[in-house]
Design brief:
The structure holds 3 protein chains of 3 kinds. By secondary structure, chain A is α+β, with helices and mostly antiparallel strands. Helix content of chain A is 37%, strand content 22%. A 6-stranded antiparallel sheet of chain A has the order 21-22-20-23-24-25. In chain A, strands 3-2-1-8-9 form a 5-stranded antiparallel sheet. Chain A is globular and about 85 Å long. Chain C is globular. Chain C is of the alpha/beta class. Chain C starts with 11 loop residues before the first strand and ends in a 17-residue tail after the last strand. Classes of the chains: A alpha+beta, B mainly alpha, C alpha/beta. At the A-B interface, helix 9 and helix 13 of A face helix 4 and helix 5 of B.
Chain lengths: 764, 88, 181
């Protein structure tokens, strides 16, 4: 008998029956334990058919335990009769289920295709990195298991994870790597890829000595690990990538799939047993929240660490719902069948809408407060109890009914998010918890942002279009109430976007000036609201095409604390050439340095100098090629293009070079003069810098600069003249244009007061 | 995500497009004035969406009138100022 | 083709057209709504209310009442489509099923599965057509899913009347030389 306390690292089906758990012991050891774990799934339908299924199952060698039962389907008011099928051998369940569906496709199935870690989470409360106590016999079979903490703890005890990082010395898509770089705890080793045997021997030794819990790689899924596994086989020197000696690594094939009219590409995956492999290049949200965030996602969703790092937030939310359903004895349907209840054509117009998106008052504004509903849609789902099975709310705020599946699932997540956000405000800048909190908050944010969309998703097991529509209906209501409050309190509402509004009032400059507004909005909507900040100045941008047309959610501005925020412009877009984005970013930072409205004029001139400098660098060939890479995504198969887009032309080049690309993959390319006009990155032949289409890049930069300078009265044509002007004359900025507009919007009384002073013609 | 109807902006563009023949037959200066009218209606697309009318064109026309009226009020104000008269 | 000349007896009528004859179906819905209640099952997320409203308004000022007579439900997966038809009670109200096969062409659903589900829908369509006219529109599959064309064949085979529209006639621009055009 052994008593063990530690952290749960990995959990998977045991091929001999039950499950395997890997624990990191308090004593520093890594323990492989087994546990009996029968799994049950259900079939429902016509009783005659169920009887035939029963008879067929009785004849199966696996000898599942069969029982008729009454269980709850979320979408049915009454309990329904189901046939329960229990297997001791969890690992064999998917195969059995597959065979059953081939023979009995007409029946409905529940709890049939669930990840084992979710079943375990529902029964024992386990989750990755949970602190556990286990008592096992000499054979390592668990007799008792208790979970000692919760995924909702703000400061869980940290497991002493050992990580080994592996990466090739260059990007394999671009050139052939020559060496493998391994690092851990500040040590770095370089193994030449040309000396294959020594590489394997050294890597083996490193893995055995270090015995890492995490294997962090770059291109591990698509290049590095497959290559190492090939080498190991070639030289007959097996690599102990898995901790579990009895198994090979798990190989998941690559694929493209269709989701909401977009093609998403998923690279192949190499998953380990007893050890967690995370490929930083293949991890879904790596750019947004790295390892800490991935671990937090695993904790909250109860998905294994390797899976949590790779899957979309939609899968994460689905997993959470599944666990909640299992815990509350609600059947998890295999296929979503629940359809929309009929509505009238007039209702369709009312409900088939998204969030309210208002046109902004374009131009430059000073001392503007930005008010945000905190996680608006999830908050509405939780507080108004919106769930597929609950009656739709007739008001914002509390509900008379017991919480439904969706609020039960989201409630703790929302609470943790709010708690961390509040803590972030009070933690001092040097506190190490800040970084961790931030990464974990990102993970929460993505899950929360997705859960609303998931509610309306056609394949979501617990989705329901009417619930989704109810959320947007109340979201629009909440935003409108906030607008009404703002106007009643004498604020001018400059812009509104789904869950936020920009407001301004004479004399309101400090955060505390906005406090009464916040309090009244909370009172009227029962939803949490926060002041995102007060802008020293913010510019709402019009359309590129027509300056009269305001564009929602396209702006840039500086907060009072000098931080800069921008939406909808080049520096925010993933596919912009880095050089263009950087130029825009530098210009924006320059503009941000103006402390007063009058100082802006000087900063505009300085920003123009930055632009001219960067253009000179461009034409002089001083800009590295990587900075000029533009990203393009292939939206369909190459054959589908009648006239090839730049992305398609680049893909053709890659195809000719033996590097086919799939729809949904991102291609990086340079724009060149003449035909074909593009040069794909990652081609074996390096592009000739002299062939770059400098005019095209200059055009991109001028457009990016013009976006920033348009609110200051600088037209794009003037900008072109200015930068061509070798004499270096100071541009005559039509300052009066935007100063006059500022006067108009500043004298902004309530339009409906009888003794109104000259009301501004908005948007002119 | 299950959106069945075109967005209010798309519907607006359709309505504008429906007047393309009318616009073509106008004099150039009148064309620009018409464009101005349609541009002004775009200021209130979100309200039109919220209104959820089965015939959104009616809301667009009302929006044009609304902007016109604001302009009239503004001009009235400016005129009073020029004349040195009290407002209102 | 004028919507009004379609014979509307209690029968199952299947229309195949390049875009599932959506415009025609919407026009039909509008005309039916002028005089009575009807049900719509939207299988392809195509029920744009706006042109329906415009058509109704051309014939009657009672737009609100007419729109209230159209009861519709949307199917986003073929499983939903099949379940909806199975659960729909037979009523003496016309049923329009727009773009039924759209969700059956979904490549993420196995072809055999789509076939099985469609085969299950047919008896229900026939059942419903005993009590009221049922008009089903469908489009051919995209070239990349050509093997699914047999689904449209199955549907046509079950109909009491099947119409295949190659393309809706393009109105000819009138010229000076067309007498009585």
């Amino acid at each position: 008998m052994a008593d063990l306390t530690g952290w749960l690292l990995d959990l998977y089906e045991d091929e001999r029956g039950g499950v395997v758990l890997w624990l990191i012991g308090d004593d520093g050891g890594r323990y492989r334990l087994r546990q009996d774990f029968p799994v049950t799934f259900y079939a429902a339908g016509e009783s005659a058919r169920l009887n035939v299924l029963w008879a067929w199952l009785r004849r199966q060698p696996l000898k599942p335990r069969l029982a008729k039962d009454q269980r709850r389907d979320l979408f049915q008011p009454d309990l329904m009769t189901v046939l329960g099928i229990e297997l001791q051998h969890a690992a064999r369940q998917p195969q059995l289920f597959h065979e059953i569906t081939q023979r009995f496709p007409d029946l409905d199935y529940y709890d049939a295709d669930l990840a084992i870690s979710l079943r375990h989470a529902a029964r024992y409360g386990t989750f990755p990195l949970a602190r556990c106590y286990a008592r096992a016999d000499e054979g390592g079979l668990i007799q008792e298991l208790r979970v000692l903490d919760s995924p909702w703890d703000l400061d869980p005890s940290k497991a002493p994870l050992r990580a080994l990082a592996l990466r090739p010395d260059c990007d394999p898509a671009h050139a052939d790597p020559r060496a493998l770089i391994a690092s851990h705890d500040g040590h770095e080793y370089r193994f030449s890829l040309e000396d294959e045997r020594p590489l394997l021997v050294n890597l083996r030794a490193l893995l055995t000595r270090l015995d890492p819990d995490l294997l962090l790689t770059y291109n591990g899924d698509t290049w590095l690990l497959p290559r190492l596994l090939d080498l190991a086989q070639k030289h007959n020197l097996p690599l102990p990538l898995n901790r579990d000696p009895g198994r090979g690594v798990m190989h998941k094939k690559e694929g493209s799939y269709f989701s909401y009219g977009q093609i998403i590409y998923r690279g192949q995956q190499i998953l380990l047993y007893g050890r967690c492999h995370i490929d930083c290049r293949n991890a879904m949200m790596w750019q947004d929240y790295d390892l800490e965030g991935a671990l937090e996602t695993a904790r909250i969703t109860a998905l294994p660490i390797q899976t949590a790092a790779r899957v979309s937030p939609g899968t994460g939310i689905s997993s959470m719902q599944i666990t909640t359903a299992l815990r509350n004895d609600i059947l998890v349907p295999w296929r979503k069948q629940q359809a929309e209840q009929p509505k009238t054509a007039a209702d369709l117009i009312r409900f088939d809408q998204g969030g309210l998106v208002y046109q902004p008052v374009t131009g430059l504004h000073f001392d503007v407060g930005m008010i945000d509903f905190i996680s608006m849609y999830p908050s509405i789902m939780v507080r108004s109890n919106i769930s597929p099975e609950t009656p739709f709310p007739d008001r914002l705020g509390s509900s008379d009914y017991p919480p439904g599946l969706v609020p039960l699932t989201l409630g703790p997540l929302l609470e943790k998010r709010v708690a961390l956000k509040q803590r972030a405000l009070s933690l001092p800048v040097w506190d190490p918890r800040r970084r961790m909190d931030k990464a974990r908050s990102e993970a929460h944010k993505w899950l929360l942002v997705t859960c609303f969309g998931y509610l309306g998703y056609k394949n979501a097991r617990f989705g329901r279009i009417e619930a989704h529509e109810a959320v947007t209906t109340w979201g629009r209501e909440a935003l409108l109430r906030a607008k009404e409050v703002a106007e009643e309190l004498g604020f001018n509402v400059l812009h509104m976007y789904v869950d936020g509004l920009w407001v301004k009032k004479d004399g309101c400059r400090q955060p505390q000036d906005f406090q009464p507004l916040l309090e009244e909005v909370v009172a009227r909507t029962s939803l949490p609201v926060a002041l995102d900040g007060v802008y020293r100045w913010v510019a709402f941008l019009p359309s590129h095409v027509d300056e009269r047309l305001p564009v929602p959610n396209r702006y840039f501005g500086v907060f009072q604390d000098s931080s800069v925020k921008a939406r909808g412009i080049d520096l925010r877009r993933r596919d912009s050439a880095p050089f263009v984005a950087d130029t825009q970013r530098e210009m924006l930072r320059c503009l941000a340095r103006a402390e007063t409205p009058d100082a802006l004029h000087g900063q505009v001139s300085a920003a123009l100098d930055i632009l001219r400098g960067h253009l000179r660098d461009l034409h002089a060939g001083r800009v590295p090629l990587e900075s000029l890479l533009v990203g393009k995504k292939l939206s369909k198969e190459l054959a589908g293009y009648r006239v090839p887009s730049p992305g398609a032309r680049a893909a053709l080049q890659l195809l000719a070079a033996g590097k086919p690309t799939r729809p949904g993959q991102r291609i990086r390319l340079l724009f060149t003069r003449g035909d074909p006009g593009v040069h794909a990155w990652n081609l074996p032949s390096a592009p000739d810098p002299a062939t770059l289409d400098f005019d095209y890049y200059e055009d991109l930069m001028l457009r990016a600069a013009a976006t920033l300078l348009q609110p200051f009265g600088v037209a794009e044509e003037d900008l072109r003249v200015y930068v061509r002007d070798d004499l270096g004359e100071q541009l005559e900025l039509p300052v009066h244009a935007w100063k006059r507009q500022r006067q108009r919007t500043e004298s902004s009384p309530n339009l409906f007061k009888k003794d109104a002073v000259c009301a501004p013609a908005e948007g002119r | 995500m299950g959106r069945t109807l075109p967005s209010i902006t798309q519907e607006f563009m359709q309505e504008q497009e429906a007047f393309a023949r009318f616009r073509r037959a106008l004099r150039r200066a009148d064309q620009l004035a018409l464009d101005d009218l349609f541009a002004s209606a775009r200021q209130h697309l979100s309200a039109a969406a919220y209104a959820a009318h089965a015939l959104p064109m009616e809301t667009f026309l009302l929006s044009m009138l609304l902007e016109q009226h604001k302009e009239v009020m503004h001009l009235r104000c400016e005129l009073d100022e020029l004349r040195g008269e009290p407002h209102g | 083709m004028d919507a009004l000349t379609l014979p509307l007896y209690n029968q199952l009528l299947v229309l195949t057209a390049p875009h599932a004859a959506v415009k025609l179906m919407l026009e039909l819905a509008a005309r039916l709504a002028l005089t009575g209640e009807l049900r719509v099952l939207d299988g392809g997320n195509r029920f744009n209310v706006y042109p329906v409203a415009r058509t109704i308004r051309r014939y009657s000022p009672e737009l609100t009442a007419a729109l209230a007579r159209i009861r519709l439900a949307r199917a986003f997966t073929c499983y939903q489509a099949a379940a909806m038809l199975a659960e729909m009670p037979a009523e003496p109200r016309p049923l329009l099923v727009i773009d039924l096969l759209a969700t059956f062409y979904d490549e993420s659903v196995n072809l055999n599965e789509s076939r099985r589900l469609l085969a299950g829908c047919i008896p229900h369509l026939q059942r419903l057509s005993q009590a009221a006219p049922v008009v089903v529109s469908a489009k051919p599959p995209a070239p990349v899913s050509a093997e699914r064309a047999m689904l449209a064949e199955t549907l046509r085979g079950a109909a009491s009347g099947a119409w295949q529209l190659e393309a809706l006639p393009v109105p000819k621009a009138p010229t000076l030389w067309d007498p009585g055009a």
